[in-house]
Design goal:
The structure is a homodimer of 338-residue chains. Chain A is of the alpha/beta class. In chain A, 44% of the residues lie in helices and 16% in strands. In chain A, the strands form three sheets. Chain A has a six-stranded parallel β-sheet, with helices on both faces. Chain A has a four-stranded parallel β-sheet with strand order 7-6-8-9, sandwiched between helices. A two-stranded antiparallel ribbon of chain A has the order 10-12. The structure holds a DNA duplex (16 and 16 nucleotides).
Chain lengths: 338, 338
DNA sequence: TTGAAAGCGCTAACAT
DNA sequence: ATGTTAGCGCTTTCAA
């Protein structure tokens, strides 16, 4: 058509050239009008705007990004969008980025560990920087990936300074929780464990080990569980078998699943069994009974993640891990040992 | 540098040209290797791969998309990622798109109605097509936007065939729910209404109007409420004032918030008050008591959305609205009138 | 099999 | 104030 070598893909319906032609001006002028450059003659600008309206033109952000060398967009890779804990971080991150004129695009990996790196690379290569939320891949994979996707900040995984990291101190959080239960007189506590290979589960285990060493008389027994409502619901028989008077769930979702089961089984909470969660997801205030849990100011975590990302983009990041210490939020699901 | 007119933006660290130079081949050859074109001499291909590894090169998806005229990526615009109802649809859509080799990128509008159209335009201009989940904008705005973002499919809003649409039949769903309660002997039913201007709320109102006309002896009273846990929790006083023996909540989230409040207030469910929700979000099975709700096979809705999107992309869509009829899932939160 | 170069749709430096 | 054109980083046609 235009050139000697025809292009096979129709690509877009209307381009800046079409507008230029329709308005009888150059592409540069159209570009100026589209970007609100003030030096354009009002009459011409009006002609351009009319052409834009009539042809229903919207510019290609892809072409624009390529030309500008930046997209003012960041990506976020999330392992599971259904996890409420991520929403709150995402929300804080989103608001902060938005305030600075950045868009955010989210990619869900659907807990598919194998595809995680590809998704990260893909979204990174369409944006200016990315945040990796609790990546599930192995440490080796992660360390190999990081230099290829910077600027990047990682949530809840250590990076050995190969990237910025924002960490929630799960070890200390669980420690606080256990100490609280011990303080209430519980001497036999069950831990409904998360996925065995999850870093966040290991961190919790560390915290519990500390409690074990500080309180030799207290027994903390592990019960294999998981991360979902179903897992919490299904854990009851094993939990019951431990004879524990209190249970620390891997997270709120698990705790809520358990609470549902306990209600069905007629087990009174906290009279017969205290239950605590982790994350303080929004629903925890409204469960029956309301859930004792650890709060980590997740919105702030998101805000901080954005700041770290900006530092990475500017190239002046020190990459010192940013760690958030969770705080206990005591509600109705825990109480003194019967 | 290269040309007479230096470019100001550093843009990317490593480009295909760098690889070509390092490997002593042309860009075309690098491109071939990157895309697995078979006709490349193995020795040369190996040289290229080595260069790629050493320089840590990953290609710009932006440039690639521009060149190819397609990104094999679709966008999804969601008004509120925290709403569990969207996750299930998203999940179904994602799985289906993935199966066909498409990536999906998500943009959350944070319930900001004013920015909704801009977000949609932006993400659309980086992807091949988009899905609009329950857009909040006015009908006029929506109809004006649609032709500018096609191929597009809209969830839970009618489009007058200006785009494909997938609809959940809320009117009929609520009707079924109300009929069920009437069948249980309830003659005074409260409806905890959603946002007054939300289309999905209006649809529910229509369904209730039908029930009112069919059962003149049954009173269905509206209680202004909302869409969140908090809204459901806060609605109790107004609800109590109606003297209703059953409540239909705008959605499960509202119902769960209410359930939490009722537990605190010592109101027994369903003995003193039956409570029903809508959407069948995952937690509904695990609440205390478990929640009676309407199920709409949300995963299928997502799958169908993808099919509609594909038809739009191919240009052979008939745009006949696809409607899903929800079904009643009876659980423990509803029962016969005392 | 490989390379040169045009072209994807835009922006901006430079010239007028 | 407006136009011309190089260039962003790729892919692919065409020629060799």
């Amino acid at each position: 058509m235009a050139g000697r070598r025809a292009r096979r893909t129709p690509s877009r319906v209307t381009t800046i050239s079409d507008i230029a032609e329709a308005a009888g001006v150059s592409k540069a002028t159209v570009s100026r009008v589209m970007n609100g450059v003030a030096t354009v003659n009002e009459e011409i600008a009006e002609r351009v705007r009319r052409a834009v309206d009539e042809l229903g033109y919207t510019r290609s952000e892809t072409a624009r990004s390529l030309s500008l060398g930046t997209s003012r967009t960041i990506g976020v890779v999330v392992p599971d969008l259904a996890n409420p804990m991520f929403h709150q971080v995402l929300h804080g991150l989103h608001r902060a980025a938005e305030r600075d004129g950045y868009r955010v695009l989210i990619a869900d990996t659907l807990e598919n560990v194998d595809g995680e790196a590809d998704v990260a690379l893909d979204i990174r290569n369409r944006t200016d920087a990315i945040a990796l939320f609790a990546p599930r891949m192995s440490r080796a994979q992660l360390l190999e990936l990081l230099p290829r996707i910077e600027p990047v900040v990682v949530l809840n995984r250590t990076t050995g300074k190969r990237a910025a990291s924002v960490l929630i101190d799960y070890a200390d959080g669980v420690r606080q929780l256990a100490e609280h239960l011990v303080g209430q007189g519980h001497t036999r506590i069950a831990y409904l464990a998360g996925p065995p290979d999850a870093r966040s589960n290991m961190a919790r285990q560390e915290g519990l080990d500390l409690v074990r060493s500080v309180h030799p008389s207290v027994e903390i027994v592990d019960v294999a569980c998981g991360f979902s409502f179903e897992d919490g619901y299904a854990a009851w028989p094993d939990l019951q078998a431990t004879g524990a008077t209190a249970a620390i769930a891997f997270n709120d979702v698990v705790a809520l699943g358990l609470l549902g089961r306990l209600d069905e089984e007629g087990v009174r909470v906290p009279e017969e069994l205290s239950v605590a969660g982790f994350d303080d997801i929004p629903f925890s205030r409204f469960s029956s009974p309301s859930l004792t849990t650890m709060t980590a100011r997740l919105g702030d975590v998101g805000e901080r993640t954005w700041q770290a990302l900006q530092a990475e983009m500017r190239g002046d990041a020190d990459r010192e891990p940013i760690v958030f210490a969770p705080e206990l939020t005591e509600r109705a699901s825990t109480g003194s040992r019967a």
